[in-house]
Design goal:
2 domains, 4-stranded parallel beta sheet
Length: 310
Amino acid sequence: MSELSVDHLLGIKYLKKEDIDLIFQTADHFKEVINRPIKKVPSLRDITIANLFFENSTRTRLSFELAEKRLSADVVNFSAASSSVKKGETLIDTVNNILSMKVDMVVMRHPNPGAGIFLSKHVGASIINAGDGAHEHPTQALLDSYSIREKLGEVTGKKVVIVGDILHSRVALSNILALKLQGAQVKVCGPYTLLPKHIKSLGVEVEPNLRKALQWCDVANMLRVQNERMEINYFPSTREYVQLFGLNKQLLDSLDKKIVIMHPGPINRGVEITSDVADSDQAIILDQVQNGVAVRMAVIYLLASKIKQQ
């Protein structure tokens, strides 16, 4: 397969396994590029990309911006307080203003699920979803799978447990879809109040006991508790959450095998994982960050190749 089957990256649910394979092969090439002394390639010198962030983001925005600049694209940054963008019309107005400046691609993070899909139907640019509400975050799932492949050789057949706040996590949904598509086994672990009701319909097992989940898995992806998305208390106290679902070095060392620890960031140190776990040789958290740039370069490059053909 030499090109993506999609014109936008709106969610993992629209991708085929061959798309993921192509993105990873392309990312392998870019990973080599970003480890050279001169980290830029002139691939997208004639492409303009707008980064629209209607929700706060540090790592994802920087990662996309770095990926775009490494590819020599022209970059326009737009961050809006979510208050001015509560209405669909405002979103289209904002984007139309930017498109009138002849933008080829839009990378967007938005608090409303489906915002990217809505946009893709109304504007002529290629859309990359950088997170829409608690719905999907496709590039995070791709870089997570890419990091597993790099560490363990392949994703197929691997056992991955996703721990924590599954309910509010776009990372969890995208990860489940991406891992299942590649033939991994997936379990989730967390308080029942933080598991979506339909979770089993995604072909995922629930394991309420953290030790059992860790003993089963090859990889544990530890999610942050998303306090900013919670209007009510989903568990009695942080202390109780830490006792039941927090990963510390003692628990990690008591397992009879070495598992890989991942985290999409930002880490609440001492809540979902302790500092000594985050900084241990079993954690690949910093590899995920580096891989994020290579994977985002791959996605942007492949989508831009389709724009150029039009």
